[in-house]
Amino acid sequence: KSIVVLLSGNGSNLQAIIDEISRQKINAKIVAVIANQKTAYGLIRAENAGIPAICIDHTSFASREDYDTQMASCINEFNPNLIVLAGFMRILTPAFVENYQGRILNIHPSLLPKYKGLQTHQRAIDAGDEEHGASVHFVTPELDGGPVVLQSKVPIFEQQDAQELADRVQQQERQMYPLVIKWFCEDRLKMIDNKAVLDNQIL
Ligand code: GRF
């Protein structure tokens, strides 16, 4: 299977996926990495792995629709089976998402449906939650609202700050995202009627 990864920043999830592919744990090829920021370190990780690294700077587009149209035409040149959002910090238009229905995955740093959007770690601490975590889900037009495939939990310790918590959550992310991508690439994971289905079981 072929994968296009979209990101905006560090790319530690991208790196985990690259590493699992090179260890032959995932039978797939990342055919392009696209960022909306030219400073995204994920672009350097892609180059180091010999993957085409492309920046489509969102500041040079007048509207979200224009940006997503350009993004889609770039993605379509690579004709991927799967689009992986790995820290891509832009909201995608419904038209974009519907065009790739069932073929876009995202990782979100909370136990969805809790804490959609930003500042998830601080919000979990402020709420006095005892646990927090990350979720991998299919992307639908509803922001952070698509069907969840897999969640991983971490405890929140007293006096833990948001950065420490984020580090622990991201450690989990780097384990769980490659696993979900592996399932997708083995045709075991699908989105059917807005539900995530693994090995013919609704999740
Ligand atoms: C991760 O915490 C992910 O959950 C969120 O953005 C962060 C990306 O980290 N969507 P990285 O760029 O993969 O290191």
TrEMBL record:
The active site is at H108. GO terms for biological process: 'de novo' IMP biosynthetic process. The keyword Transferase applies. Pathway: Purine metabolism; IMP biosynthesis via de novo pathway; N(2)-formyl-N(1)-(5-phospho-D-ribosyl)glycinamide from N(1)-(5-phospho-D-ribosyl)glycinamide (10-formyl THF route): step 1/1. Keywords: Purine biosynthesis, Transferase. N(1)-(5-phospho-beta-D-ribosyl)glycinamide binds at G11, S12, N13. Gene3D superfamilies: Formyl transferase, N-terminal domain. GO terms for cellular component: cytosol. The keyword Secreted does not apply. Pfam families: Formyl_trans_N (PF00551). Signal peptide: none annotated. (6R)-10-formyltetrahydrofolate binds at R64, M89, R90, I91, L92, N106. It comes from the Bacteria. The record marks D144 as: Raises pKa of active site His. Its EC number is 2.1.2.2. Residues 2-181 form the Formyl transferase N-terminal domain. It catalyses: N(1)-(5-phospho-beta-D-ribosyl)glycinamide + (6R)-10-formyltetrahydrofolate = N(2)-formyl-N(1)-(5-phospho-beta-D-ribosyl)glycinamide + (6S)-5,6,7,8-tetrahydrofolate + H(+). GO terms for molecular function: phosphoribosylglycinamide formyltransferase activity. Belongs to the GART family. Catalyzes the transfer of a formyl group from 10-formyltetrahydrofolate to 5-phospho-ribosyl-glycinamide (GAR), producing 5-phospho-ribosyl-N-formylglycinamide (FGAR) and tetrahydrofolate. HAMAP family: PurN. This is Phosphoribosylglycinamide formyltransferase. It comes from Paraglaciecola psychrophila 170. The gene is purN.
